[in-house]
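Private note to self, pasted from the team thread so I don't lose it. Backbone tokens:
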């Protein structure tokens, strides 16, 4: 249901932040274990993020989506890169514990 509401908001352009909206859609798909759709939405969020190509929240979700897809090596690589890019983010660091 949440995915339908978020997708409808795109059609009407009723959102405050496009990147956040795409992230919400990606996270919704992740929770529904629709990992391929989650990955597609997350990539769209990264494209719509104008100031940088990545953000700790996007990296964290990307790693978890890859785990859900069974792509463990890619997940570890994404999170390793995130630790390097965002050393102060304890959530990413704790992912390895």
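Design output:
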């Amino acid at each position: 249901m949440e995915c339908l509401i978020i997708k409808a908001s795109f059609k009407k352009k009723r959102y405050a932040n496009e990147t956040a909206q795409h992230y919400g859609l990606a996270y919704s798909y992740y929770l529904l274990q629709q990992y391929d759709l989650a990955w597609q939405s997350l990539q769209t969020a990264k494209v719509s993020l104008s100031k940088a190509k990545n953000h700790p929240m996007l990296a964290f979700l990307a790693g978890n989506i890859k785990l859900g897809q069974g792509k463990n090596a890619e997940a570890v690589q994404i999170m390793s890169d995130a630790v390097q890019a965002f050393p102060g983010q304890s959530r990413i660091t704790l992912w390895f514990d």
